[in-house]
Design brief:
Blueprint: E1 3-8, E2 11-16, H1 17-28, E3 38-42, H2 48-57, E4 61-65, H3 69-76, H4 84-96, E5 99-102, E6 113-116, H5 131-142, E7 149-152, H6 160-171, E8 181-184, E9 201-206, H7 209-219, E10 225-229, H8 232-262, H9 267-274, H10 298-307, H11 314-340, E11 349-353, H12 368-378, E12 382-386, E13 392-395, E14 398-401, E15 413-416, E16 434-436, E17 447-448
Parallel strand pairs: 3-4, 3-6, 4-5, 6-7, 7-8, 9-10, 11-12, 11-15, 15-16, 16-17
Antiparallel strand pairs: 1-2, 8-9, 13-14
Helix pairs in contact: 1-7, 2-4, 5-6, 8-9, 8-10, 8-11, 11-12
The chain binds nicotinamide-adenine-dinucleotide.
Nicotinamide-adenine-dinucleotide is lined by residues 42-48, 65-68, 71, 117-120, 132, 135-136, 154-155, 187, 189, 191, 292-294.
């Protein structure tokens, strides 16, 4: 097996001749039959289900393994948050049996590759909760058979792929890079937007170059192309950089929104003007805070890991603190506006427009709206919400259900949190006081911003 230098994705790699052949196959295979006939996706959530659909599109048979019976039942009943075109594909694949759903871990030993997409949240102390990932990796390792490829997709700390997959496989006597193949490849899905396989490149870092090749072949159908990196650790840190970059820039946009307010300027006009610069600037917009499973969590994996080295990266740390404080700032602003009108939070009727954590998703997990509602209720306000995609939310004060006809309510204050596409917000022109924490209703004359 000779050595060969190649340049790929703007980088130079020295790999074996055998591996370069494999890599060539990877890039050439888009229109050909799938190299892997069966792939298991472990965890069929927001990432796993679209990943399974992208793999199915390439002709591969997919085993969807999840520990949650109710999640699998919801998928079978089409009660899932997917764009219409994906729903149609899902129905077809379930009917033909090309997608099988199971809670039986033994099904993992019957496939050629395993892709792990389980949640990696943080706990209430912002410490990474690795329970799901540890359990999923331990299952994958226990059922791994020679020849299999295992790819971790869940966002995690640097070195996790080696800790949770490589070392346990070695303890089983399997040599990674020879008997089995292991890589990390972060997910770049944008929830609410159809998971079009060719929409983004995918970073893949294998334990060996052959691992990278095998993992690239597994994931080729889920991406516009493969960007190989030299190790799982590089791929793990790449994901943390991507999402920390977003966190820092969102925090900066929020900070500048406050600054613009001090000068009585419109922050959106300022950001749009700055975005005309052809280099060195990327627009990020202020809002009520960040929710979902990525931005509020992922940088904490880095902060937590660096604590063991007694290092606190100050920019990341400050950005995460600022992001966490943002919902409380929305409440403070609401309090100020009501006070100016001679009212207090206590007893005021407040409507939240949109509680999903971002437009076009039916997901309110981690949404800043929940913290805003809890704070308002604690202060004695009567809080209701309207959201065409979210029927009910659990708050500290109990379960709230959406108000389908918000225009009919008598509100002292309306707080706009999430603006879903195609929703008619014209009734807000009649609302007496609007706090637009989304910064998106710029045509509303009498709105206030945070
Ligand atoms: N949601 C996003 O927008 C997004 C984007 C990029 C990356 N990610 C990352 O992808 C990973 C998955 O996130 P998600 O949003 O899909 O999570 P999710 O909560 O939507 O779904 C995870 C699924 O995994 C299942 N699961 C949990 N433990 C399991 C186990 N031991 N074995 C099998 N299944 C198990 C759950 O039942 C659930 O159905 C996370 O690391 C997240 O940070 C998410």
């Amino acid at each position: 097996m000779g050595r060969l230098a190649i340049t790929y994705g703007g980088r130079r790699f020295v790999i074996s001749v055998f591996d370069s052949f494999e890599l060539g196959v990877t890039r050439a295979r888009a229109a050909s039959a799938p190299k892997f006939r069966s792939i298991a996706v472990v965890g069929l959530g927001y990432v796993g289900l679209p990943t399974a659909l992208a793999l199915l599109e390439s002709g591969t048979r997919v085993v969807g393994y999840d520990i949650s019976e109710s999640r699998l039942a919801a998928i079978k009943a089409h009660r899932v948050d997917l764009p219409d075109a994906d729903q149609v594909q899902l129905t077809g694949c379930l009917e033909t049996g090309r997608l099988s759903l199971t809670t039986e871990a033994s099904a993992l030993s019957g496939v050629e590759a395993v892709v792990v997409c389980v949640p990696t949240p943080v706990d209430e102390h912002l410490v990474p909760d690795l329970a799901a990932l540890e359990a999923a990796c331990s299952t994958a390792v226990a059922h791994c058979r020679p020849g299999q490829t295992i790819v971790l997709v869940s966002t995690t700390y640097v070195g996790c792929t080696r800790d949770l997959v490589v070392r346990p496989l070695e303890r089983r006597g399997l040599v990674v890079g020879r008997d089995v193949f292991v890589a990390f490849s972060p997910e770049r899905i944008d929830p609410g937007v159809r998971h079009i396989p060719r929409s983004a490149q995918r970073v893949v870092g294998g334990v060996t170059s052959l691992c990278t090749c095998r993992a690239s072949e597994v994931l080729n159908a889920t991406a516009a192309g493969i960007y190989p990196v030299s190790s799982p650790e590089v791929a793990e840190l790449t994901k943390l950089l991507e999402n920390t970059f977003r966190a820092v820039n969102i925090a900066l946009a929020n900070e500048f929104a406050v600054v613009a307010g001090l000068f009585d300027l419109d922050i959106i006009e300022v950001i749009r003007a700055a975005a005309t610069k052809p280099y060195g600037f990327m627009p990020f917009y202020p809002g009520p805070g960040v929710g979902g499973h990525c931005i509020p969590c992922d940088p904490h994996y880095l902060l937590w890991q660096l604590k063991s080295r007694r290092v606190t990266p100050p920019v990341t740390d400050a950005a995460m603190a600022a992001i966490a404080a943002r919902p409380r700032l929305v409440v403070t602003r609401a309090e100020q506006l009501l006070a100016a009108a001679g009212r207090s939070l206590s007893g005021s009727r407040i409507l939240i427009v949109g509680v999903a954590y971002k437009p076009a998703v039916a997901d309110s997990r981690g949404s800043p709206a929940l913290e805003i509602i809890d704070e308002l209720v604690r202060a004695g306000a009567q809080v209701a919400y309207t959201d065409v995609l979210v029927d009910r939310v659990c708050t500290a004060g109990g379960v709230l259900t959406t108000k389908p006809r918000p225009a009919e309510g008598d509100w002292d204050l309306v707080i706009v949190h999430t603006v879903h596409p195609s929703v008619d917000h014209s009734w807000l022109t009649q609302a007496p006081m609007v706090l637009d924490a989304s910064y998106q209703l710029e045509h509303l004359d009498h709105r206030h911003v945070v």
